[in-house]
Design goal:
The protein has a domain at 512-590: Immunoglobulin-like (Sandwich), CATH 2.60.40.3080. With 591 residues, the protein is mainly β. It starts with a strand and ends with a strand. It is 0% helix and 51% strand. The chain has a 6-stranded antiparallel β-sheet, with no helix packed on it. A 5-stranded antiparallel β-sheet has the order 1-36-35-32-31, with no helix packed on it. The chain has a 4-stranded antiparallel β-sheet with strand order 2-41-38-37, with no helix packed on it.
């Protein structure tokens, strides 16, 4: 049986090979089909997990069969959303191939609103029948809303003013829902994108179209892999990676209205040193500029904390690169950077540097997360790269050494962006790899991974045996050569992040937030603190500047007290209150 480990950050010379507590693992399933793919994972408000996946012949989601319709003698691809209920039962909620007219349509992404309605986005080259009388004709990219049981409500088509589109971007959409039910979508192609805002009934509130030109090549505009690109105000964020060897790389944005292109804004990177350039673009809810920044390096992923607007940059920067803030804050060296860095950088809603993960000389021990998902108060969950034999993972007081084969893990970072613990699944195969989709509901975490049936006919996840679908001849539709070539399988597993391995336990109270208020904020001479949960024993209060340097520390036994801030320089600070293993951080401004 494969091992699942929760490993909590300081390196120890005593390597432990401890089997994980089985309670940390809830379940695993293989959604099925040859050459399949996992598009997205999202929990609804009741803790049910929704899965968007594809099938190129037949699939079985919890015993529900999905079949890809043929086009002539070869298979098309069926896209479906399955729901794995918290009680353990499963259901296929909807499919893209619900009729012969839908063969040439795809679902590329989805999200769930506060009322558990399902918002699906995709593309069609021949129109689409969503059912329930909802149809679209012609070619283009679509947004469609279904209710929680998969009944279509409405659909909208977008084609950038080109009704004769002949090709489509593979994953053109980013889709997210605001608490009030509004839908925020970004539709993107190689050199242009559109910001679209709809209300819950499908009425268009905002449509803004932009074009991008730059001095580099191999450029890609994208956003969060887990659709965490807007805050609760509706502000949205994108990033743009490119390869650019010019002296002053520059990106230009223009707006497009009725086919008229108007220069909008531009951003430059003034220093050279490496080919990679990444631009961070932030827009207000109206679509106007909030801030544009350019840096040497590249982003692997990006996510924004909805309640605060704090953003997390999954960042890679190479030695010898010069940078401007916030990236030059990594080593506090005023603009030069001598070593490789891979990790997470946190900035506030105006792109002011807040904090980062530690940059470690041993790259294998850096937090090179494949995708990230905020879970509040600066905490993150992320899927990790695949580790190899001999790699050592550390988090808190435990360590784990990979003895053989591959290793798939997901990490949780605490409010200081330090690894709090992680789950490690040693599959002993170099073909098993983590996938970007990850979702969280309370203590539950759902992750996805891929594996190759030619090297693994089965996959053992903590005693649950998953069977490779191309080895499973019970599926009703099997295509002949060359369409029956063995492809990639996917698996989805759920874990409980509050449970640990058998050698140590995670005290969940350490992760609870201390509730307190600060006033006045901004403050000039005196800052008052009131705690509403009446904590016992001494409370430690620390104030740090934007460089992470602690500038003031005080201790108090009361639940209402004041701090003299008259000696602090004007600026942005972060105040942390700690008591009995719990802590919480808030931003303050000193005038």
């Amino acid at each position: 049986m494969k091992k699942l480990l929760l490993i909590s950050v300081l390196f120890s010379s005593n390597i432990c090979f401890t089997q994980n507590n089985a309670q940390a693992f809830d379940w695993a399933l293989n959604p099925g089909a040859n050459s399949n793919s996992l598009k997205a994972l999202h929990y609804d408000s009741q803790g049910n997990l929704l899965v968007l996946a594809s099938a190129s012949d037949s699939a079985s989601f919890g015993g529900n069969i999905i079949t890809a319709l043929p086009s002539g003698s070869f298979p098309t691809t069926n896209y479906y959303i399955g729901k794995r209920y918290a009680n353990g039962t499963s259901q296929v909620v909807l499919q893209s191939r619900n009729g012969a007219t839908n063969v040439f349509s795809n679902f590329s992404d989805f999200n769930v609103d506060a009322n558990n309605n399902i918002i699906v986005v995709g593309a069609t080259s021949a129109g689409h029948d969503f059912g329930n009388g909802v149809t679209l004709s012609n070619k283009g990219y679509f947004i469609a809303k279904y209710n929680s049981i998969g009944t279509a409500q409405w659909a909208k088509m977008y084609n950038f003013g080109n009704p004769n589109m002949s090709s489509f971007t593979t994953k053109p959409w980013h889709i997210q829902c605001l608490p009030n039910g509004d839908i925020v979508a970004v539709l993107k192609e190689t050199t242009r994108f559109a910001y679209i805002k709809l209300d819950a009934n499908g009425n268009e509130l905002v449509y803004k179209e932009y074009t991008i030109t730059n001095t580099g090549s191999n450029s890609t505009i994208t956003s969060s892999q887990n659709n965490c690109y807007i805050d609760n105000t509706g502000a949205f964020y994108l990033y743009y990676n490119t390869i650019d060897m010019s002296t002053t790389p520059k990106l230009k944005l223009s707006t497009v209205t009725n086919s008229v292109t108007t220069p909008f804004d531009s951003v430059s990177v003034s220093n050279t040193g490496h080919a990679g350039v990444s631009y961070l673009l932030a827009f207000r809810p109206s679509g106007s500029k909030k801030y544009f920044k350019g840096f040497r390096g590249s982003m692997i992923d990006f996510a924004v904390e909805a309640n605060t607007g704090n953003a997390f940059l999954n960042w890679t920067q190479y030695g010898g690169q010069n940078n401007i803030a916030p990236m030059n804050m990594i080593n506090n060296n005023a603009g030069t950077f001598a070593q490789t860095y891979t990790g997470i950088i946190a900035v506030d809603s105006l792109c002011n540097y807040i904090k980062k993960t530690n940059d470690v000389l041993n790259v294998t021990q850096q937090i090179a997360l494949k995708s990230i998902l905020p879970i509040g108060n600066f905490k993150l969950i992320g899927t990790q790269k695949t580790y190899n034999t001999g790699d050592v993972l550390t988090a808190n007081t435990q360590t784990y050494s990979v003895s053989s084969g591959g290793l798939f893990v997901w990490f949780e970072l605490d409010q200081n962006l330090a690894p709090n613990y992680f789950v490690a699944a040693p599959f002993y195969s170099t073909t098993t790899s983590p996938l970007p989709p990850i979702s969280n509901y309370n203590s539950k975490v759902a992750v996805g991974l891929s594996w190759i049936a030619t090297t693994q006919t089965t996959l053992n996840i903590n005693g649950t045996i998953l069977k490779a679908n191309d080895k499973n001849t019970s599926f009703p539709t099997r295509y002949t050569a060359p369409y029956n070539a063995i492809g990639t399988d996917i698996a989805i597993a759920q874990f409980d992040r509050t449970l640990s391995g058998s050698t140590a336990s995670i005290n969940e109270s350490q992760n609870k937030t201390i509730n307190y208020i600060l006033y006045p904020n901004p403050s000039k001479n005196v800052l008052n603190i009131e705690l509403d949960n009446l904590l016992n024993d001494d409370k430690t209060v620390t104030i740090a500047n934007i460089l992470g340097e602690v500038v003031l520390t005080e201790t108090s036994s009361g639940n209402k007290f004041s701090i003299n801030t008259s000696n602090l320089k004007s600026g942005v600070y972060f105040i942390t209150v700690t008591n009995q293993g719990k802590q919480s951080t808030q931003k303050i401004i000193i005038e």
